[in-house]
Design goal:
This protein has helices spanning 31-39, 46-74, 79-86, 90-94. With 95 residues, the chain is mainly alpha-helical. The termini are far apart.
């Protein structure tokens, strides 16, 4: 039985010296994201990560509550509008 012959690898002089093109994706961070990345650049435990999530959640909950209270106090939001939103399907909003 005859052995199959495989092509020999190219020598260094025959190899292409130019690098192959690489597709790169760039992520652009907003200033808040950059500040958080710098602040938490060192390794954090799972417990610390959970605490950070809780602090951030509480912060944004407080801001949302304040905005809703402002809408309520100004009369732009009332019980009738809340009831209307409660019965609205998300697909009705999107279409």
């Amino acid at each position: 039985m005859k052995r199959k012959q495989y092509p020999q690898p190219a020598s260094d002089s025959e190899m292409v010296k130019e690098p192959m093109p690489v597709t790169q994706m760039t992520t652009v961070f907003n200033p808040s994201q950059m500040a958080l990345l710098r602040m938490f650049a060192r390794d954090q435990s799972e417990e610390t990560a959970l605490e950070i999530k809780q602090v951030l959640s509480k912060h944004f909950q407080t801001k949302a509550d304040a905005a809703l209270n402002e809408l309520w106090d100004s009369g732009q939001l009332d019980q009738e509008k809340l009831d209307e939103l409660r019965n609205m399907h998300i697909r009705d909003i999107l279409h």
